[in-house]
Amino acid sequence: MTLPPELAAALAAAAPRLGIFAGRVSYFSTVASTNDVAAALAAEGAPEGTTVVAGAQTAGRGRYGRAWYSPEGAGLYMSCVFRPAEGSNGQTGSAASLLTLAAAVAVADAVRAFGVPAEIKWPNDLIVRAPTGWRKLAGILAEANVSGATLEHVIVGIGINRSHASCPPDIADRVGCVEEFSGRQVSSPDLLCAALAEAARVHEHLAAGRAEAILDRWRDLAPSACGVAVEWRNGAAMHRGVTAGLDRDGALLVEEGGICHRFYSGELVWRL
After folding, report:
1. Which among 88, 101, 95, 127 has a CA at the least distance from the CA of 214?
2. Structural domain boundaries enclosing 30
3. How far apart are CA 233 and CA 241, in angstroms?
4. CA–CA gap between residue 16 and residue 177 (Å, rounded)
């Protein structure tokens, strides 16, 4: 679809900073899911950097198929196509995991440029600490497409709460937005350009084999990845441990009674 004039102007002005994303942004007023649209484009051969942006989603989702509230005019909803080199970082799971971590770094640095004290909560949430507890600002969902042993592409979906919206009662006290914590109005085009510019920067690091630079920045932005009590279930058994940082592949380390567990994904309950 044709880009709205304000968005087109912002992208043109930011083009020198957008790397692989320059000239590859498509806009839709409403879609079911930007990840689904981006995946369809990737299946048709869309190049790396292809980005789908929507004004609203009717079936946005997060991890484990959970719904992502995506009202019109209140958030930035986007999905990007990545095509990691075959065997990137050793295995498909870790390649998708590393892209999730890199996207979290990009989004965190983008919103921090607007004065938002965002932190990363492993693996895919951006939060801001408030007197009432953590407030969720953004989420990231990476979905890999594999053919046989070949990683064809990874779709990285990003949802950022830009401005206040009427949230469902069950999540209203756990959600925050960029404008709330920056103390000023932030336009969707400006937020998109900031996010894509940071995504281009982290992509350059990954393409050049500098994953450790991304992990170092992730560690800076994720203080809860060390020394925080967590719980998880393995079958009928409940386990309890303490976060111990990231390894070189981007897995979260959790110590439990002298045993170190590695998590690329999974459902952890954080006990702050």
Report:
1. 101
2. 5-221
3. 11
4. 28
Q: Please indicate, yes or no, whether residues 181 and 209 belong to a single structural domain of this protein.
A: yes
pTM (2 decimals)?
0.89
**pLDDT tens, N- to C-terminus, the chain (272 residues):** 689 999 999 999 999 999 999 999 999 999 999 999 999 999 999 999 999 999 999 977 766 566 677 778 889 999 999 998 744 444 445 677 889 899 999 999 999 999 999 999 887 889 998 887 889 999 999 999 988 878 899 999 999 999 877 566 677 778 889 999 999 999 999 999 999 999 999 999 999 999 999 999 999 999 989 999 999 888 788 899 999 998 887 789 999 999 999 988 777 888 76
Q: Could you tell me if 68 and 36 are in contact, meaning their C-beta atoms sit under 8 angstroms apart?
A: no
CATH, residue 28: 3.30.930.10
Nearest to 57 by CA among 80, 46, 73: 73
Contacts of residue 7, Cβ cutoff 8 Å, sequence gap at least 6: 25, 27, 53, 188, 189, 192
